[in-house]
User: Fold this.
Amino acid sequence: MKIATKTDIVQGFRDGIPIALGYFAVAFSLGIIAKQAGLTAAIGFVSSFFTRASAGEYGVYTLVAAQATYVEIVAMCLVVNLRYMLMSAALSQKIAPGTSWFHRVLMSCCVTDEIFGISIAHKGYCPPAYTYSAALISTLFWASGCAAGIVVGGLLPMNIVAALSVALYGMFLAVIMPPARDDRHVLYAVVASFVLSGTCSIVPVLNSLNSGTRTIVLTILISAVAAWLKPIEVEEEAHG
Amino acid sequence: MDKHTIIICILLGIITTNLIRVVPMLLIKGQIHNRFLRSFLYYVPYVTLAVMTFPSIIETTVSPLSGAVALGVGIVAAWRRMGLFPVAAICCAIVYLMDSL
Assistant:
């Protein structure tokens, strides 16, 4: 299989730009927290470039600020980023058979919520070049956003920061709604996710779960129930 | 914390987060044949993104109402397959306008 075609690179870049803009905004607010933890712009850039996990980095920076232990840092990363394990497993099914281990490993390192989302949304097998292209542009903005937040954090008005952070959720919707329109079982799963997630955030006791834990528990629960009630047609899935 | 300790914490974060991503890819060779597992992995991305979108979208904005309107309009725009960037831009514009009023 040819790893890089011009079309894949251009398409990945195009789909990566809205993600990059959303990342910049989110990473910017992350940078404000990183600054409180004592990170310099350079360390923040390197950290964000290689970690690429909003909730995970947020957890690490708050732990650093709280003088936590190394064990706590690792535990936090494991729990908050557990969904990447599920995403990476799902992505393994979207990579053409015969793709080298190098590309499989590199593609899995590109996994973030959004890069995973668009890679999964790619028709047929996902070409590595598409994922790399989108991941590179968005990661550069992510790391720059964090560094910018550390340097000038707090200068932007609140309403602009809030408006920019919503870009990310808009992108999530753009990834999940078209498949929900095509497959009503996906639609039911999405509706159940909204309802249960909303419920968990207001019901006492359940609302004390942090959003990372809530994401893991609900993802496993809802996906397992959906898979049990409405398993996919195996032949159909083999091509897509 | 001193700079040295911060750097160790950051490195631990980088290593842990990327190991989580790489390990399943190394363990799963080729296609999974178990029907339940494949169905489970098919639903995971949509469920995860939906869970992360709501209610966070209404908790991020200055007023919950602007987040709720952005969610509603965003769902309609995404349903009409408007693409990542247009949907994201519409949501941002709504929140900016409503929160600035």
